[in-house]
Write a structure and sequence with these properties.
The complex is a heterodimer of chains A (641) and B (299). Chain A is of the alpha/beta class. Chain A is 28% helix and 28% strand. Chain B is globular, with a radius of gyration of 19 Å. About 3% of the residues of chain B have low confidence.
């Protein structure tokens, strides 16, 4: 029996225990899941890995041999499955009903294997095992080829965000190590897997029972040139380049033992952090700097993704469990409405409209599934209409939370895009969810017939209503000038209202994204709301990039000619990028935001704006005064005739 | 930068401690004095540094622990200023329950399992940290990190809560509790590596020393006090021995060893061919015995 024994060999060779321990301690960790149909041999494969890597102790091997004789299914041979089927109920039934975690190591890596059940009624257990796995080994019985379960398991694995998979075509010994059997299955799977978004798929013919292509290349299959399973896993690259995403740490706990110390505890999910870094606490957008970093009992200068740390901030900012500390120039989104994938795990079905507890990585919230879009047939991947989600079903659902949370979509971050669903009565974990994207949904529209006309409303306000439409690049100063102008007008007793991305995106245009169609709809709505407010007699300040002339014309056309004042807030892209108050240019440069105006999307300058402000040369104060002057000169700050 | 597997395990354990501190009302740290407990305590202290441990520590004393263990417990309590609760099942003491008179099964059930339930009921703990690892034993390989217990402290292995990512459901009803295992994903080798790396203090029983032992039922049993009466043909010998696991001294087998420092222990462990729990008598009944004990409320 081919057996490697990395631990002993190395130790006997070197005699240098300290350096050996150091080498052991600095190995990387790979977590993988094994899955496949009921009799595809998952437990046998893991038993084989443990046995071949000599990680079984003598007494375990003796107990295994004894049990193999007593209840095994392999005659006089060792039944490796007995090693891993731990619960008594499982051994009696000869199946695996729960996730078992197993540990072994090679020279290169430490491994944690999640051995998961194959039956459809244990889909939830499989999802549990997949949720923490970096890679998946999907077993296929060479005699039976791809089965419904192969499709389902592959789908669950891809749904849970695993990008690296090994398709291990097992029991090759029972098909005489026939290459054509392997090739046919490989071709069929390649065809199917196109829909799944895996990044790396390796195909491997094996026999877990006989040990072919497990630790070393099989002599029985010289036609297969690829590496055996263990060397393949040793070299697998599952890093997901987390550094590029910028620093994020969900605050798990506030540590305040006395008045002199206030530390924010959490695990860094992405990026790295250094003392002195500028940070922002979300969702309330409070800025500060990192004052100190504690890891274990040590104060450190820098900490990395994956480390559990305690951070002190320089300022007394409001920050508690559930918040997120992020890099100032790479902060993440905040929302309370999402479209999500849900795997349902309870006997009582998911019902839209019912309230559940939603637990994210660092807080528990109340949530309601507002709409069940459809469910996915886990065997065919087809979408089907649904009114409820039953046990082990997967669906696309809209979720509303009782407060906004900082988040990433699941595809970008497992830690920041995932949640579990808890029944409020039984406290059971009834489902698992993954954020697909944030929703922006419009509220209900109520129309009240006017009893008093626009002129009458304007009269008692001593002003002539108008839409002051600020357009310009992100960072040009639209909001700053609008804000200042509103203060000045307010001080003069004028009735104003400001519409900007910050307030309309939370409600009015919640359901809209950044496609061209959505941008147009966004401006149409803002234009319509401005129209109503002008009807109410207000001076409406609208601050939107609104890069396209067509959109601005749309807003203008909704109003009377003299009610629309286009204000071009002019600043060069270089200036705006230097200011970058929301860190958006940095994100766009990294490719995290597509179609960003000024970077990879055009801004069409206004041809004949009513007012043009040069924020490169003039201060916000001066710009606001320039507008006031225009308003005075054109009679907007007096009652209409 | 990718952090090493030990740092990943460390961070995972710290995350678990903090999650319990944030969400549970009345947690307790189950302290068994052994190496796993020592590592777990070190991780807990790190999770909340510079604050002291935000929960009490509980030791269920069966009255048959090695004397060196009790001395070490008191030393650690003082060193870290722990809020240490020691619980002894007084009913068991009154009935003179012991491993030598009643056998390991009855002794463990009364003094350990029942004693633990008494303590949990008495102080109404809603979460109890334990040092169990998934690599120790087959039924533990399938246990959750947050393992739900009914108000009778029973574990239902077939009805465990799904546990995804690092999101832990801590919600329970009054009277129910969770057992929390921050070391779930550590292996024995990881534990030893971490002890060395972080220079964690251990009870001296792990290091080989000349100790008085007898041979009984194929195991070397240390004569820790005069309650251990010699049977016919048994005689006390002084051998250089150490212990791989610790428990009640009449139930814990010693191994002959020259390893009197950490490197020696790790070296011996690396070439050992006998799994850790073999030194514990309680496992030897049936292959599913641990699962059965856990269903009944054993930690």
């Amino acid at each position: 029996m081919a057996a490697i024994d990395p631990i002993q060999n190395k130790q006997l060779m070197s005699h240098d225990l300290d350096s050996f321990i150091e080498a052991q301690g600095s190995k990387s960790l790979l977590r993988f899941i094994t899955c496949g149909s009921v009799d595809d041999g998952k437990s046998t494969l893991i038993g084989r890995l443990l046995y071949d890597s000599k990680l079984l102790y003598e007494d375990q091997v003796e107990a295994l041999k004894e049990e193999s004789r007593r209840v095994g299914t392999q005659g006089d041979d060792i039944d490796f499955a007995l090693l891993v089927d731990g619960l008594a109920a499982e051994r009696e039934q000869g199946i695996t009903i729960d996730v078992a975690y197993r540990f072994f190591s090679t020279d290169a890596r430490k491994y944690i294997v999640a051995d998961t059940p194959g039956h459809v009624q244990y889909t939830r257990n499989m999802a549990t095992g997949a949720s923490t796995a970096d890679a998946a080994v999907i077993l296929v019985d060479a005699r039976h080829g791809l089965q419904t379960q192969t499709y389902r398991h592959s789908f669950i694995v891809s749904l849970l965000g695993i990008k690296n998979v090994v398709i291990a075509i097992n029991k090759m010994d029972l098909v005489d190590y026939d290459e054509s059997v392997f090739t046919n299955i490989q071709n069929a799977y390649q065809n199917f897997a196109q829909k799944l978004g895996f990044e790396e798929i390796a195909y491997l013919p094996i026999s877990a029972l006989k040990g072919d292509n497990i630790t070393t290349q099989s002599e029985n299959m010289p036609w297969h040139s690829g590496e055996a399973l263990l060397p393949l896993l040793d070299k697998m690259d599952c890093s997901n380049n987390k550094l590029a995403q910028g620093f994020r740490m969900p605050v798990q706990l506030v540590n305040r033992p006395n008045l002199d110390f206030r530390g924010f505890c959490g695990t860094i999910t992405t990026g790295e952090v250094k003392v002195g870094d500028d940070v922002v606490v979300l969702p309330n957008i409070k800025s500060s700097k990192i004052q100190s970093i504690i890891r274990g009992r040590d104060s450190v200068e820098q900490a990395f993704s994956g480390e559990a740390v305690t951070l002190e901030l320089e300022d007394e900012v409001d920050c508690s469990r559930g918040d997120m500390i992020t890099a100032k120039d790479a902060r993440c989104e905040v929302s309370d409405q999402f479209q999500v994938n849900v795997i349902w795990m309870s006997e009582s079905p998911l019902l839209p409209g019912r309230s559940y507890f939603i637990k994210t990585g660092n807080q528990t919230l109340a949530g309601v599934f507002t709409a069940l879009k459809h469910k996915v047939n886990v065997n065919t991947l087809e979408e089907e209409p649904a009114h409820s989600l039953e046990l082990n079903e997967v669906g696309i659902v809209n979720l509303g939370l009782d407060k906004p949370i900082p988040y990433e979509i699941y595809e970008h971050s497992r830690e920041l895009g995932s949640f579990v669903i808890i029944d409020r009565i039984t406290n059971e974990t009834v489902g698992a969810g993954m954020i697909k994207f944030s929703l922006r949904r419009a509220g209900n529209i109520h129309w009240h017939a006017p009893d008093v006309d626009a002129n009458a409303r304007a009269l008692i306000k001593h002003q002539r209503p108008a839409s002051l439409w600020f357009t310009g690049l992100s960072g040009s100063g639209k909001s700053t000038v609008a804000n200042l102008l509103e203060k000045k007008l307010h001080a003069r007793g004028k009735h104003t209202y400001t519409l900007d991305g910050d307030n309309v995106r939370h409600g009015l245009t919640k359901d809209l994204g950044f496609t061209d169609a959505d941008r147009v709809e966004n401006i149409r709505r803002v234009g319509e709301v401005s129209k109503l407010m002008i009807d109410a007699g207000l001076l409406v300040l609208s601050a939107f990039i609104s890069p396209f002339r067509g959109e601005r014309l749309l807003a203008r056309d909704l109003l009377d000619d003299d009610q629309f004042i286009e204000i071009y807030v002019k600043a060069s892209v270089e200036t705006c990028e230097k200011r970058d108050p929301k860190g958006l240019y940095a994100k766009a440069r990294r490719g995290e935001i597509k179609h960003f105006t000024g970077i990879d999307s055009d801004y069409e300058e206004p041809i004949n704006p009513e007012i043009e402000l040069d924020t490169d040369s003039f201060s916000a104060e001066e710009c606001a005064d320039q507008i006031i002057l225009h308003l005075e000169e054109n009679g907007f700050l007096n009652a209409p005739d | 930068m990718n952090i090493s597997h030990l740092r990943r395990l460390e961070a995972e354990s710290i995350h678990i401690f903090r999650e319990v501190a944030a969400e549970c009302e009345n947690p307790v740290f189950m302290y068994s004095i052994g190496k796993d407990s020592s590592v777990m305590l070190d991780l807990a202290l790190k999770a909340f540094h510079p604050a002291p441990l935000p929960f009490p520590v509980l030791h269920v004393d069966t009255t048959w622990k090695f004397r060196e263990m009790i001395a070490f417990r008191d030393h650690v309590t003082k060193k870290y200023n722990l809020d240490m609760h020691v619980h002894i099942n007084q009913e068991g003491v009154d009935q003179n329950i012991g491993p030598l008179t009643h056998g390991s099964a009855v002794h463990t059930d009364v003094m350990k399992t029942q004693g633990l339930k008494q303590a949990l009921n008495k102080y109404q703990y809603d979460a109890a940290f334990g040092g169990a690892r998934r690599d120790e034993e087959k039924s533990r390989a399938k246990e959750r990190v947050f393992s739900f217990r009914t108000d009778k402290h029973a574990w239902d292995p077939k009805n465990q809560r799904p546990e995804l990512w690092s999101i832990y459901n801590t919600r329970i009803k009054k009277g129910e509790s969770v057992r929390v295992f921050p070391l779930s994903n550590w292996t024995e080798l990881d534990i030893w590596q971490y002890i060395k790396l972080e220079n964690i203090e251990l009870v001296s029983l792990y290091y080989a020393k000349e100790r008085p032992v007898i041979e009984r039922d194929g195991m070397l049993i240390m004569v820790d006090d005069d309650r251990l009466e010699l049977r016919d043909g048994e005689k006390v010998e002084h051998k250089k021995v150490r212990f791989r696991t610790l428990g009640c001294y009449p139930l814990t087998g010693a191994m002959e060893s020259e390893a009197d420092d950490l490197n020696g222990i790790i070296q011996e462990m690396l070439i050992a061919r006998t799994s850790e729990r073999e030194g514990r008598l309680i496992d030897t009944d049936t292959s599913a015995s641990m699962e059965k004990k856990k269903q009944e409320g054993y930690f």
